[in-house]
Write a sequence for this structure.
């Protein structure tokens, strides 16, 4: 790996490692350019079959956000922006997605949210995913048509307690990823120890052959 | 409510509002809290263990926050101390039942002490900041 590519990889990994959930915001508005950059990150998220049945509803009106907070127990403070990741049943029907059976729709909500959270962090912003809200009440507050379901709120803003990306150091570049036991299964359910990758196995095979 | 229960229900006491017992939250604040309580009840259908207790104590702190700007005297002293403690400790992991239980029991006790002292016309006991932390759990 070239030094340039290594630095780029480390910047991405550092953004992933240092992101945290932000529950309190300082009230400053979000620059349009930053918001667009975050939304673009959602655009590049994986989407099952590239079907894109999840519209992102951006809410910036303080009154609407205040009403949304009243029916969202999981929203502890009012952010300047709420991005509502929705499922559009009409788009799903057009793409022949069977919403009642297809679990990839939940995965797509997650990938979009994660891309946005990492992008927000890279831009020095804070974000918080919120699923604890009344879907019926939120639909009324947001004026959603019956075919559109709110799935997840992403709160976005400047953190009250400032966070910053840590500039990667030589030491940081050598950090070995740490995963709690059971968080990751490798190849098979319940397998908590990583198995050799295909490339390592091939290399090992050649060495065995040499011997 | 059945007819029997309806008959047994006590008459609603007359509301007394005046200088001695002023209103301390606005209509819009009350409606916002109503929305929070109703939707919290709905969410307790699916997330009671992780969040049920939290939603209640969070509702209490939201009520206290709404009350604070229009509250004075000993009540204000109590609410300020209440919020200083509860807004931090409500965020503790409620699955740690022992630790969270100490926090909630202490909050209940101090709230009751304030209510009783207020009803008796006494000065409530001085509030000692700093509810027992993990290290104080026996």
């Amino acid at each position: 790996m070239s030094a340039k590519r290594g630095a780029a990889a480390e910047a991405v990994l550092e953004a992933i490692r240092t992101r945290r959930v932000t529950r309190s915001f300082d009230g400053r508005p979000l620059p349009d350019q930053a918001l667009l950059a975050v939304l673009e990150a959602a655009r590049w998220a994986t989407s099952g079959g590239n079907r894109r049945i999840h519209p992102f509803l951006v809410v910036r009106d303080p009154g609407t956000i205040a009403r949304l907070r009243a029916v969202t127990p999981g929203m502890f403070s009012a952010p300047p922006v709420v991005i509502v990741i929705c499922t559009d049943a009409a788009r799903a029907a057009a793409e022949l997605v069977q919403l009642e059976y297809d679990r990839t729709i939940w995965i797509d909500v997650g990938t979009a949210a994660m891309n946005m959270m990492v992008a927000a962090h890279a831009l020095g912003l804070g974000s918080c995913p919120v699923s604890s809200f009344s879907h019926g009440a939120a639909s009324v507050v947001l004026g959603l048509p019956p075919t559109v379901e709110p799935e997840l709120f992403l709160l976005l803003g400047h953190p009250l307690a400032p966070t910053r990306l840590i500039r990667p150091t030589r030491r940081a570049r050598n950090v070995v990823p740490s995963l709690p036991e059971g968080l990751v299964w490798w190849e098979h359910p319940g397998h908590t120890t990583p198995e050799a990758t295909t490339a390592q196995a091939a290399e090992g095979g050649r060495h065995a052959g040499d011997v | 409510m059945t007819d029997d229960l309806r008959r047994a229900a006590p008459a609603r006491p007359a509301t007394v509002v005046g200088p001695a017992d002023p209103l301390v939250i606005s209509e819009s604040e009350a409606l916002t809290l109503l929305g929070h309580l109703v939707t919290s009840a709905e969410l307790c259908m699916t997330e009671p263990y992780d969040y049920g207790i939290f939603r209640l104590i969070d509702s209490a702190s939201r009520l206290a926050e709404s009350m604070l700007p229009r509250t004075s005297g000993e009540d204000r002293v109590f609410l300020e101390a209440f919020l200083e403690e509860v807004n931090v400790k409500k965020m503790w992991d409620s699955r740690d039942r022992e630790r969270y239980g100490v926090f909630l029991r202490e909050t209940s006790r101090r709230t009751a002490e304030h209510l009783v002292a207020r009803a008796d016309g006494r000065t409530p006991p001085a509030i000692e900041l700093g509810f027992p932390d993990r290290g104080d759990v026996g």
In short: The interface with chain B takes residues 66-67, 69-73, 76, 132-134, 137 of chain A (CB under 8 Å). The two ends of chain A are 28 Å apart (CA to CA).
